[in-house]
Amino acid sequence: MNDWHDEWWKQLEKTAAEVEHFFAEVGEATELAVDEIVDEVSENLGTFLEQFQLDIFEEVDSFIEDLVDVIITTGDEIDAAISEEWENFSDEDFTIISYHQPSAQSHPACINCVNYHGQVYNGNLLVCAMHPYGSDDNNCPDWEKDQS
């Protein structure tokens, strides 16, 4: 009666050893497959990233070339337009600044106002920042007494 018991245990041990050997082989095969997949993915990813980098450099380079062309073209057009417009101006047009004092006849609302500017630039009087052409009536809402 002990024979069948011993045989059963031997068979169980043999089956366990074969199962263990099977899983060891599966583990090795899986490890090899994973290593191959990782190597292939790394190689493909490296190739993709190199190509992506080249594509980005080409796009940026193209964009910068186009931008420089636009700047150069626009700059030339602006220079041409300015030179035509500014040919008639002289330094005196920008350096002659005179002062206009407010009076009862001219900007009476500005008399003794701290905000009054009164400078004439190229023939144009700048009364103050709030009312560049002066107040519309004799009482300015922004009038403040000059403390000087």
Task: Report on this structure.
- It is a single chain.
- The protein has 148 residues and is mainly alpha-helical.
- It folds into two domains: 1-88; 91-148, no CATH class.
- 61% of the residues lie in helices and 6% in strands.
- It is built from two helices and three strands.
- It has a three-stranded antiparallel beta sheet with strand order 1-2-3.
- The longest helix is centred in the N-terminal third of the chain and has 85 residues, at 2-86.
Structural class: mainly alpha
Radius of gyration: 46 Å
Q: Number of helical segments?
A: 2
What is the mean predicted local confidence, pLDDT?
85
Order of helices and strands: HHEEE
Q: End-to-end distance, in Å?
A: 129 Å
**How does the major sheet shape up?**
3 strands, antiparallel
The parts where pLDDT drops under 50 for at least 5 residues are: none
Strand order of the largest sheet: 1-2-3
**Count of spatially separate domains:** 2
Helix content: 55-70%
Report the β-strand fraction as a percent range: 5-15%
Number of strands: 3
The rough form would be described as elongated
List the helices and strands and how they pair.
Blueprint: H1 2-86, H2 91-95, E1 97-99, E2 119-121, E3 124-126
Antiparallel strand pairs: 1-2, 2-3
Brief descriptors of the model:
148 residues; mainly alpha; 2 domains; 2 helices; 61% helix
Brief account:
This protein has helices at residues 2-86, 91-95, and strands at 97-99, 119-121, 124-126. It is mainly alpha-helical.
